Amino acid sequence: MGAVAYLVDAGLFNLLAFGLPHGLPPVAAKTVSVAVATVVTWLGNRHFVFAHRRGRDTGREAVLFFAFSLAGMVIAVGTLWVSHDLLGFTSPAADNVAGNVVGFGLATLFRFVTYRTFVFRPPSGPQAARSGGRTSSEASN
């Protein structure tokens, strides 16, 4: 799922910031690209990556997911903002390194840990009891 999110994020960022005749400022373009990639990631994580760990109701998972995603967005956009606006590295290459390499990498690490720990937790209760407390993939082994 990370590769798909990365392609959506980096591709949309470059289109919005550099591919349009009057592109968005890089920080605005990154904010939009991360928001769109977050929706793609929600769908992929919920239905594929962590499908076996869906132990909470969808509403609670969504609130936690989007709260941690917002924090991840702050990391990715903040990295670009520091590079572009504070340090003055304004070339497309510098914006891509700051936003799509450093920022994306740090934000991805943060989000993966928080999603796994807080959002898509293993099921508890009767379903967990039937599998001996293991996830469905562990129970089938």
Account of the 3D structure:
The chain has 141 residues and is mainly alpha-helical. The protein has one domain. The protein has six helices and no strands. The longest helix has 29 residues, at 58-86. It starts with a helix and ends with a helix. Residues 130-141 have low confidence and may be disordered.
What's the topology here?
Layout: H1 2-19, H2 26-49, H3 58-86, H4 92-119, H5 126-130, H6 136-139
Helix pairs in contact: 1-2, 1-4, 2-3, 3-4
Mean pLDDT, to the nearest integer, reads: 85
Q: What would you call the structural class?
A: mainly alpha
Question: Gyration radius, to the nearest Å?
Answer: 18 Å
Gap from first CA to last CA:
24 Å
Tally of discrete structural domains: 1
The ordered H/E elements are HHHHHH
Number of strands: 0
pLDDT below 50 for ≥5 consecutive residues: which ranges?
130-141
Tell me the strand percentage band: under 5%
Main beta-sheet strand count, sense and barrel state = none
Helix content: over 70%
Q: What count of helical segments does DSSP give?
A: 6
3D shape: elongated
